[in-house]
Specification:
Immunoglobulin-like; alpha+beta; 63 helices; six-stranded antiparallel sheet; six-stranded antiparallel beta barrel; SH3 type barrels; about 40% helix; about 1950 residues
Amino acid sequence: MSMWIPTEHEKYGVVLAGFRGTVQHGLPLEIGDTVQILEKCEGWYRGFVLKNPNAKGIFPCCYIHLKNAHIKNKGQFETVVPSEDSVITEMTSTLRDWGAMWKQLFVKNEGDLFNRLWHVMNEILDLRRQVLVGHLTHDRMRDVKQHITARLDWGNEQLGLDLVPRREFSMVDPDDISVTELYRLMEHRHRKKETPAPVSTHHLFVHLKSLMSSNLGEELEVFFFIYDSRENRPLSERFFVKLNKNGLPKFPEKTERQCTLFVDLGSSDLRKDVYIVVHIIRIGRMGAGEKKNLCNVQYRRPFGCAVVSIADLLTADSKDDHLLKVYACNTESDWSQIHDNIIKKVNSRYNLSGSNTGLAVALQLLHGDIEQLRREYMVLFTRGVSITKKLGFSDVIMPGEMRNDLYMTLEKGEFEKGGKSVARNVEITIYALDADGQILKGFVAVGSGEPGGDEYHTFVLYHNNSPRWAEQIKLPIPVDMFRGSHVRFEFRHCSTKDKGEKKLFGFSFVPLMQEDGRTLPDGTHELIVHKCEENANLQDCSRYLKLPFSKSNLPGNNQTVKGTKESLWITSFLCSTKLTQNGDMLDLLKWRAHPERISDSLSKLKEIDGSEIVKFLQDTLDTLFGILDESSQRYALKVFDCLVHIINLLQDSKFQHFKPVMDTYIESHFAGALSYRDLIKVLKWYVDRIIDADRQEHIQQVLKATEYIFKYIVQSRRLFALATGGQNEEEFRCCMHELFMSIRFFLSQENKSMRPITHTQAVFLQSFPAVYNELLKLFTVREVATFVRETLGSLPTASQPDCPLEAVKLHCIAKTVDSQLYTNPDSRCVLLPVVLRLLQAHMQEQRDLVMCAHILTCMLSLLKKDDTDSSSSEEVDLIVESVLAVLLRTILEVANRPQPAGPTLRPQVQDVTGEFVSCLLALLRHMKDKHYQQLLQRFTSKEDLRDFLLHIFTVFRILIRPEMFPKDWTVMRLVTNNIIITTVLYLSDALRKNFLSEKFDYKVWDSYFCLSVIFINQTCLQLETFSASKKKKILEKYGDMRVMMGCEIFSMWQNLGEHKLNFIPAMIGPFLEVTLVPQPDLRNVMIPIFHDMMDWEQRRSGNFKQVEAKLIDKLDSLMSEGKGDETYRELFNSIIPLFGPYPSLLKKIERETWRESGISLIATVTRLMERLLDYRDCMKLGEVDGKKIGCTVSLLNFYKTELNKEEMYIRYIHKLYDLHLKAQNYTEASYTLLLYDELLEWSERPLREFLSYPMQSEWQRKEYLHLTIIQNFDRGKCWENGILLCRELADQYESYYDYRNLSKMRMMEASFYDKIMDQQRLEPEFFRVGFYGKKFPFFLRNKEFVCRGHDYERLEAFQQRMLNEFPHAIAMQHANQPDQTIYQAEAQYLQIYAVTPIPDSQDVLQRDGVPDNIKSFYKVNHIWRFRYDRPFHKGTKDKENEFKSLWVERTTLTLVQSLPGISRWFEVERRELVEVSPLENAIEVIENKNLQLRTLITQCQTRQMQNINPLTMCLNGVIDAAVNGGLARYQEAFFVKDYIMNHPEDGDKIGRLRELMFEQAHILEFGLTVHEKFVPQDMRPLHKKLVDQFHLMKSSLGIQEFPAYVRASPIHFTNGSPRVGRNSAPNIMSPDGGARVVSRRRSDTLQVHRPLSYPAVNRYSSSSLSSQASNEVSNITGHSESSDEVFNMQPSPSTSSLSSNHSASPNVSSSAPSSARGSPQLSDKHKHPRENCLSPRDRPCSAVYPNPMEPTQRPVPHPAGDSSLPRSDPNISSPDKGSPARTTRSQSPVSTSRSPQKTSVPPFTPSPTECQSTGLVSNSPVLSGSYSSGISSLSRCSVSEASGTENTPTDHVLPNSASSGSDELIRRENKTPPPYSIHERNNPRRQVPLPPSLSLPPNVDAPPIPPKPHQIRRQDTEPRRPEQFPRPRPIPRKVSQL
């Protein structure tokens, strides 16, 4: 069997094909993966994919393409680096990183960057292919790499990745270069990214496309030039294009004839008053419109002109084409000035040459030097472009530039008529001729773009004897042909007669060079016009050349010629690198011819123009050294001065490029082998005279030229030594030493009297460093270093800081350090002390810091990282000794310097800080053990060492600051951290040795610990946040530096011993911060420190309250910042040991004597941690939701109850307050702020500034809080609470006699009373929510809450909202209590159903005469308890009469706080379960129905309803059901002997039921009487039928006459008493939303047709079970006309089990948000067809279920469920048996958001126990007669026997209470009809105030109705809120300053 063998060379490869890895130990591979190979065996490799090194496996060899690679750390932990081009490697890894981020961009919908990145990635891949193919040339490869790196950097910047330091396109390993160099690279790349360097050279590209004009037909010539309107002169040559008769270029194939580049424009030329001027000349007949005649002669005639400003091109798009308007002259004589007139807008002189004439040109400004353009715009140069130069030399003259151009401009002429009656048409022909009179061919150039010609014809101005042309030509005549050449101008008159001949009438000429060799001077020349009429006379030029040519040159006696009028003015301008117009220059160059003029010529040299000297630089220098060699005694000083003048001339920016020319001259052409003696002698002579000289200027000029003087001296000496074999060496050395002695003496002088020696010293120091390299050619390195050291050492030390010499000294040092001399280690050891001395002095005084930083950078970049030789070590030691302390101090001062407001200085300061920091880091990196030992030994006292440690720790803290380096400099940050941790490890030893035991120094140790903590918490070290590849790289290079520092903290802490107490509790916060870093090893190291702290604190003070307080404070602030994670809370309990056998913190504590308090602390911290983590996670979400609020409440209560931390408590009160305001929970916001208000008293105690509160007294703050809370109660419509606070505040104002504010308060209070009566308030629904499962946040987990819904929010909407807040939750489909498996599940389960509030304020609710607007507040406010009913059968079920066995299970939930409160939901504190017997159930049902009847009758009597339908339907429901069984069923069930015998204890209750039945009959009789009075005519038959049926009902009950107690007192139907449940509504909309009348059939009656059998198993959804099902009662009316019914009457949600996607039941159909609180509904398709066609008569109503059901509201049958059943009612009409049960819950007729009108129709009160099953099968009887617990029970509303008042429903929360109640009050007090009825909903009116006491007139016809019997309160089922659960008090007040 073969073995696996480790591979030697096969180490790295790329996967060629996908491999599934299905074999045993197989490693799945994807194409393109890179793999590292470890072993091989028979065609298989074993290894891993680089992106996941932990998964190792085997794969076939043939799937891998091997690549070359280097192996680092060979062995077990080897890493493989591919040996391909580093750019390729970087590209590959970068693209991988981008890939993932690119997809995320798509997810985040950042489409623009997504697409741009996609294109860049494709570009990079294309370029990568080119590199990999390997066919590129060296230059092309360089370009490609540049493109690649530019794109990589762009992408990294866009994606926020790190800046990559590079050198020559390759990534730089920070370990391979010094830190200063790394910083410089990073800075350079950063700057490059920020600011592109400004360009000084610009070029204008012009491309002429065409001339568009309607009247062409002749060829054209177009001239472009750049014109300066400020100086009225052209700046450039002309560019010349010929156009054909169509206005298109004549030579379209030759692009160079249409395109040009105006080159070498300076930045000063890009200004508003510089223009591109275009002149257009036509070639044809004299007059543009002349008819063709026999004459074929062509003339050049003006056509038009166009101008455009160059500044306009700076803003235009680079590719814009321009259409230039063409203008023509009004008079031809102005042609030469036309462009000026257009620029100056002199409109009278020009006009448009034609409305549609335009010149189409492309114009583009290009920036950079010409070579750069050639690279960037290759196409432009390859297809051909002519170059148009600037006139004259450019700003910078380059050596080797060969030019000899003579520019000649024909300005104007003056001619006589010549005997003609009209002026002439003059044309000039120009020729260039050589000395022999031959025409120079091709040397007359009109402009670039066209080749030069032999002659040039000017344009002709018609009949003009004083023509002005201003035409420029160029004569590029070679230098050798210049002498003897001349230019001739021939003048001809162009006749317009038949022949059209051109007749010669004169000529002028001008020679180009004078006799003495000088050329024609620049300037304007007035030439003489010589008469000549024959061409033959011009053939022999020798005849006319003897004549005078210029009027200025005429001898004084030749007046005849001078007096002639005829002249020609020309302007000449020579641009030549070879010819001169300067006579003095020629005299100097020809010095041998005139020896007597030498002295004069040398003196005049300084006056000659610099450009003339540089033209003849070599000749001039040869002349000077020739004179020096031949007569050194006489002229040495003058020659020296001339040499100095020339050297300094080359310092000028215009001529600086000639320095290389001089260097070349010295190296190759200089031959003065003896000159060195004279030069040294004269130089020394000058230096010796510095001290005594009065004027220093000339000497300063000499010293400025030191560099080149030394170059000449050294070269001369070398030539001499070469020629003589090194003779006179000693003499030369001696001279040099003497020269340097003179220099040192002059440098050592201090500024005496008024002579500015310092300036002269400064001048010398500036040029001195340039001498070093020259001296090295003749002296050894050490000799030169000694020269330099002694020279620099001789400088005076004590000079004033503002002395200019100080700055120059530093510059000199900088140049020295930069020089080649310093780079040599031999010289460095000589120079270093003097350099460090000067540097240290400057840094101590904080002067010239930029230069200091530069010097230090250069010094440190020369130190090699791995130098082991002693010299290098000594060097480091020397620098440390001199500079380290002052460097630290400098960084501290610079970093803490306040930054100036303006942006100007910031970059410089930043640079300096960065430079110094990099220097410090570089120095520390070079320090080894030995250096640290020497450094520490140098501190003589402990104070010095202490100061040093404090300094360095503080500096390290500055270096760690995020703003220290730009955000993307991760590389630099990691290097910094690595150096810091290394240094700290060295220094911690010194800390231990010197500052422990009796020498303990708290400040140093504190500084150390603070640094360590900040270090660990840096963002750039949090590896968890990085990508896997980046994390891997960092770990490989540096390891996890956090753990290293953590271990160091631990070891230092252990060393502290009893001094640990100094850091308790101060260091708790910082250490806690460290443990919150999600690094397990680090946590394991840090947690034992907490045990130690607790232990020491316990020893000291017997408890660790301090530790606890600090721990909690810090935890809170850190978690708010988002630190910490889930695993952290377990850490306190279980720690994996790192150092030795450390058990968990909890176990350690268990061994201590203070075990209990320790464990308690840990439990508290863990609980707090859980809440804080939840809080942090919730706060990360976007919008405010219940989770955020609940979480904040949980935390707030924890601080209050468990920790008693007032400040934290108050902070969270305000956080919660802000959340409520954001969510518009104004009532909850008020309650929240009230918590803080309750902590304050009405006292004058001063309070400090806190949160957003200013410094103020306690009274002022409490007043402000009161006003804010009142305002919020007002916004939340909770005016009753606002009134209480108004009163309290009013009492305070009254006690202070502040009547102004008292008045305002009373008015506000009054306004609140008005609002209570006038404004409508919606009554919210309440929902019970259970959160089960371990995945919920801690504050919700396995708890149940009751939540107050939003306005208009019904069960369906609430369920959906909860599911949105908890998207992972599963909806539970039943209302049963869950079992343990659900509690412990790793999931989220939500159980939601509606509950009914049980109000505490019974006195208000039971009092007659209280308006509903007022009662409605008490029904839904201050509620502690809620109820939920579930019907079920107990024992055997009687199929004939189910009511005998129908019980109700009533659950009462008690909350920890009342609703509303500081949250919309509170936890359930206690559950109570009671069972209500069938008899009690029956009593409740009848009570509720009686109440409902009373209410409707009252409303009808008081005219509160215009529509009598609700009363009709209700009466019909009760009477009809009774005839068919109704009350008789109760009689059968409870009045039979069997029942009475078996239940003797129920005797009273049976009596009570009988009373209620009699009472109901009495109410019905009264109701029928009222009904008869108001019933419309068309409903009379129904009324008659009802009366008949009522008599039947009475007889069936056995009532002939009402008992005395029933007749005794008349019924009082006051406005408030018959108010019924909040969930009832008088009318309901038909499903189609129309106003169709639907005769309602109550679900009580609707049961009659179906058999009353219940299946044993029926599933009740929580909605069906929920209290909401109650509204069957309410939907009695038939007419619905307002939009609120549409909303109110929608079907209720199918189940409380959230019918949504989360719901598990398939049977649950989602329905619209319903008014019903949870009754299950059928969708339309499940409706029974019969239900839709029943007439009102077919839909009888029972007494118990008076409202018929909307077809849409049929429940969904559930096949199975629990056995609990709803209660039923005996009053069931038989026709209704058999149809499925339905529950209708209508909303009270309130104004909804859609229809904000009040309604005056009161709803009916449902029974608290009525509930409908979702699961009744078709044969199951429907339970009629009970109201769901959605409406609170009336049975609790008891009234004392004595009071005759009626009980009102206790828990009926009525959304429209504000409206209907107030309406009722007003109507009670004033006998007016109600303001609006159902039919008039859309016309709301203000109510008219009425007088009080509206009592009902006793109806004569109606029999007397007995008073409402007292309701017996059942204590067992509905106990009051017991006293043992008092409302929690606010936390005890502290005398705090909050």
